[in-house]
Give the backbone structure.
Amino acid sequence: MKPDFWPAGPDAPRRGAAPLELKGALEPRGATEDDLDEMVRLERLCHEEPWTPDNFLGELGREVTLARGLWLAGDLVGLYVSWVVAPECHLLNLMVHPRLWGLGLGRRLMGDLERESAARGAVRFLLEVRLGNVRAQNLYASLGYEVVGFRSNYYDDGSPAVLMTLETGGRGPAPAGADEARPPAAAEES
């Protein structure tokens, strides 16, 4: 049985519904092919141009891919997919169930991304985000990511992307018990 926030059917609202409180513990863990149905379901709720099952399978089959999610009551509620080719980590996809936006799950996933990638030698992080996705841009900026450029016609519909990067300067991963990504290095020095 799905938690009460999980929409019932294809006509359920994707966005805009009031956020719910988290009831229960979040379980972070690696995502595998066994999670494909849940990844696709969550992807369709979160993105205007969702990845296909083949997109997920292709990424999960790469040695450089790091895919991790957050589960609540046994259901996938957040996920990231990235490539880690030290010293870089490239975030390919980040999603949080829309009914759980504003509860810090995106920040928690980004903290997990930084820790797991740093353990594999990453000190530089980069991502593309849809120009119109101000909510995500604000999250990334709050974590120290800076806009370094734009990619025109990046998405299939011709929309541009904002290119953002974070240099951790080799300061190492955030503590294992931390739920959030580290603040920018400049903030730590002041």
